[in-house]
Amino acid sequence: MAKEVEVQYFEVVVKRQRETDKEDRAGNPKMEKWNDKWIVHAKTSEEANEIAKNYYSGDMDEWRIASVKETQYLGVLNN
Fold it and tell me: Are 72 and 22 in contact (CB under 8 A)?
């Protein structure tokens, strides 16, 4: 019989960007863009979202949470 899991793992994708010292042809600052991907241990997607927001709350770069979705991970094995 399978054990019911109360806590799940969610994939959270955070889109980030910051201005660089370089300029485009129009003289505007170029933006460096990238995604951070996290596996968050939480009971709900709302809780996973809040955990990510709290993690980035003091970050100087521009950021936004692009997605939060439940994963099929059962857990993390540590050696």
Answer: no
Phi-psi region of 27 (alpha: psi -120 to 50; beta: other; left: phi over 0): left
What number is the average pLDDT over the span 19-23? 91
Residue pair 15/32 in contact by the 8 Å Cβ criterion? no
Contact yes or no for 12/40 (Cβ under 8 A): yes
Cα 46 → chain centroid: 13
CB 40 within 8 A of CB 52: yes
12: amino acid identity, one letter: V
Task: Measure the CA–CA gap between 66 and 52, rounded to whole angstroms.
Answer: 11
Residue holding tokens 């100087």? 60
Read off the pTM: 0.81
